[in-house]
Amino acid sequence: MTKDRKTFLKNITWAVVGACVVYGCASQGAPRDRSITLALSNPLATAREEVVTVSVPEDIEVRGKVLKTGFYQSGQGQIECVDLDGNGLVDQLYASIKLGANESVSFDLLKDLIPITDQSQKKTQAELSVMKGGQWNGRKYEGGTGFVNVDHLRVADEHTDHSFDIRYEGPGWENEQIGYRFYLDWRNAMDIFGKKVDTLVLQQVGQDGFDSYHEDSPWGMDVLKAGKTLGIGSIGQFVAGTVEHFEQTDSVLCHITLNGNISSIIDTRYYGWATSVDKMYLESTLKIDTKDRAVEHQIKLDQMVSGFCTGLVKKPDVEKLESLVEANGWAYIATYGQQSLAGDNLGLAIVFNAKDVDYVKEAEKDHVVVFKPTTEKFSYYLLGAWEQEKNGITTKEAFKTYLNGKVERLNNPVIAKVVW
């Protein structure tokens, strides 16, 4: 064999090896056509615009098809590819999509996505902000050099209401329409930040004075007085006609799981929550999407708990609204009227799946939704609508129309499938 021929064969060999490394060899089962298609279908005879959550099959990585985390534009809408479990692989897709009546669309997640770098396209956020540089004096946190956002927090044993260690007293989350928060203390109540603007504002709330957000400002204000009630969608246990809150826990951990562009998520773990009748471990996951006032609240309990509940604050002279409840389907209870701290109209609602609910009850201070005992995950939605929102809901009739549309979409979800 000539020297030239040996050199030629050597080069061919290394070329083949290189091709296998870069593209994957057929003998290893890797496909020639690298594509991942997301197919979405609207079963309703009406148009819809919402965020669709899609779990990514694990074997996409095994097949050598790797999605990249990031925020993208496609011809059909915006897509956020997220690695929630931190293993380096995309496991969730959030697709902000507009679909016509009975419309089906599909696009290639590897070829049809263009990265979005414009920060103004961020439409949701979640944050948890704590004071640094100070010290505890009894149950108050004194001094400090300023608030700093953190992703994780074990709530201090000293913490209670008005301890001044957490900006606006707990985590907050928002989209372009509305903001929410809940207290990381014995009240554990959820509250609403009504917004007059369609930009993100939580980063400035409570920076110029601990509770300045109770006063009207150009961005909006705290519009709901929760007090010792369930506020909007808070959780508790209904015992002997009374709602018991999270007054006693061994420890509480809060985690900003996703501060995303079109979806944001907060996870909270309650260890040793004790009421007068039970002691339990509870996982709470709150998720907000762009273009939707509703917050999904997913619950997981470690034991069968009778009387586990959520609900709405009950205000005098404010009308209660209810949808028809079928055996297996989504429904709502709501209130609408002059119940905001600004003295104007505010709508509040809980949207629940009838299969998860034991009964709906009137208590002294709350409209209560009591869930069936279970150790399986279940979800409900909470939402508010303030009349001063930009292009917001301003009448009871419009609020009912919005709620009926939300229930219809939940009962007829977008059909999503990842194909490769």
From TrEMBL:
Alphabetized PROSITE patterns for the sequence: PROKAR_LIPOPROTEIN (PS51257)
Put simply, this protein is called DUF4861 domain-containing protein
Superkingdom of the source species? Bacteria
